[in-house]
Amino acid sequence: MSIPAPPEPSSNAMPPMHRILVPILALLAAVGCSADERPADFRFLNTEPETIDPGRVGGQAGGRIVANLFEGLTVRMPPSLAPGPGIATDWWTGDDGLTWTFRLRRSTWSDGTPLTARDFVWSWRRVLDPRTASKSAQLLFPIRGARDFNAGVSDDLGLFAPDDTTLVVELETPTPYFADLAAAPPLAPSPRHVVEKVGETWTRPEWIVSNGPYVLDDWRLQDRMRLRRNPRYWNAETIALDVVEAVAGDFANANFNRYESGLIDWVDSGGVPPALVDALKRRPDWHSGPFLATYFLRCNVERAPLDDERVRRALGYALDAEAITTHVTRAGQVPARGLVPPGVPGYDGIDAPLFDVERARELLAAAGYPGGEGFPSLTLLFNTSEWHRQIAEVLQQQWREHLGIEIELLNQEWKVFTTTVRARDYDLARGSWIGDVLDAQNFLEIFTTGNGNNRTGWSSDRYDALIASASRTRDPERRAALLRECERMVVLDDAIILPVYVYSVTNLYDDTQWAGLEPDLLNSLDLRRVRPVRAEVSR
Amino acid sequence: MSAFVLRRALATVPLVLGIVVVSFFFMRLAPGGPFDADRVLDPQVRANLEARYGLDRPLVEQLVVYVEGLLQGDLGPSFKYVGWSVQEIIAQGAPVSLTLGAAALLIALLVGIPLGVIAALYHNRWADHLATAIALVGVCVPNFVLGPVLVLVFVFGLGLLPVGGWGSPEQVILPAVTLGAVRAAYIARLARAGMLDVLQQDFVRTARAKGLTERVVVARHALRIAIVPVVQYLGPAIASILVGSVVVERIFDLPGLGSFFINAALNRDYTLAMGSVLLYSTLLIVLNLLVDVLARAFDPRTETS
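Above: the input entities. Below: the structure tokens describing the complete assembly.
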């Protein structure tokens, strides 16, 4: 290699290193440091919420924040999560079950402005207003006129505030769980006087006004939210923690590391790396319980051979869910005996006898495929995740072994997957449902005709009539019986879904330090209840 | 030199615009949209949402609206994070990512150059072999392995550093080392090769013949030419640090742009994804331009070639 002779070095030709280094170091110093602030009393793991505006909130991360910043008419009381008094002190329904009256306590927003029944009317109308475009608007559809109001074709809504402390709600059909629904985060009130003044950004710490146990002190996106006790909360003296942080984190390993080194006090499954489940569940800080959610497979009943209910039932009976919960999921999940998870008040599930190889083989033979002979190829679709892949592989193996049939596996990225399933371009697809409210109908009505979450191509007039009838029935036992009949149809008789397991709550926290964190069916984190076990533990 | 800078700067404008248009359409080719979830929205609710964000209008019109906003410095609202504009989100995440990147680059240079120079000066002796071995390991170990290993040693083993999060200077150290290590190793190899090459050259022999001490020969005469390959490598190094920071931010749970970028793509948060693409590409183009200018300043020979 020949290079021309370089010029003699001279000291001024070379840019001194410090000219480059100094600005970099200055930048590091400026950004790397932050003002000292008091450490939080309690820190819990959350993902970055899409929004903390009660009018638009949807999903668990936002719901957790809203539930602690705001308070609705009712609050869910542990351990059953039955609705207890929140801003409403008591409530009753008329004879037809269609009119609900809530009596409100006198309380104020965190800025001292009085909170009245009119705030609830305004807030709920806002959720339903088409311009708000709330993803949770559907939750309010039981209210008379709500659907048309949301479509922007009518202004008539069954919602009235005859005086400051009375709220009257008129419903379309009796909704026995309405008091529970009233505790859901989207039904918490929004401060009209702030929302109208500030607009879109009213949930920022500099503007936000709330009515729950906490106010928002600081918010760093994808980092952490700082909550401070609201001294104007009506029940403020019962709140034990002054400053709480919601730490945002998406990555289980990193979240677990932070928990292990004491930077987070409470993590849910987002802080439990699946590879460590076996070791963690033997530890005293492992707390698990059932979750109001079911893992199942959807059958596309418009495609052969799944259009034959005997084939679907054969697949269901040949599915050994216990093998999956014991060897794959391992974190306290239990085999599903139906679509509705256990623990829903006033509802006993169908307790389906699901795993029965003999019966599966008979059904398959009756459908024309004895020993799996001549069975066409089927594909099981799932969204890309190691977890779902392992489950799919076990299912593939079980059906091969028990029925002599071959199932192909196909995974797709999440958004592609949801689009494919909605277009019903699948044979078998992984599905799940998380309950919004503690009611069986919330699970079962998704399989009515025309429901966007059905996605199986299945439609039954009888089923639709049963659900409609359950909606109108006020007698709880009669209603439960109607819903049980529905569940029997989708799981046993028509087998349009194959239940696999009931999800579990898997949280880590030290119960010698913290009380009030016992896992519940909705995996809520209610700071109203959380307190240090000993006063001196409080930082 | 200024004509060169001007020419290059002007060329970036159509380049960035091209990136905007191409990524705008590519993003829309991906199946699924920002409001597709496992739970299907009521058609009315979905229509309301799409109308609110202008997704019900023709694609070309959406692009025009986007570019118009862009020219006024408005990157649009995030589809996922309600009430946050893309520029606000970037303003929160960018300082984290840039600090991390700058620290990583600094580590890469401060470790890589001395390591390479020492190896060259002790050519074929044990110091050379050791430095070369370190560099080889550094090049081979990917950051998603190095990060957790560093966490094990320095957090759970020695208890010296915090495991993640952001806010204090010591929280920068582990992620910056993780991100900078591979670059340091590569820079060490470049610096070693450059130095070995330079030490053979006539002007170094001349400097030595003039009776200058070895220190002066190396530091003032040889080093300057020897690190030209390193300076030229800074462009690709910056690119890989920017990309690598996406991984490292996840390992250490840092609130940088990386997590927003990944989530934006997964969520089909079109505006946030566009904003990230725009920011990353602009950064790359500008920093590469800077590196070219810097390389010329270090070695006037590049001006003629």
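Note for the figure: Chain B touches chain A through 75 residues (CB under 8 Å).
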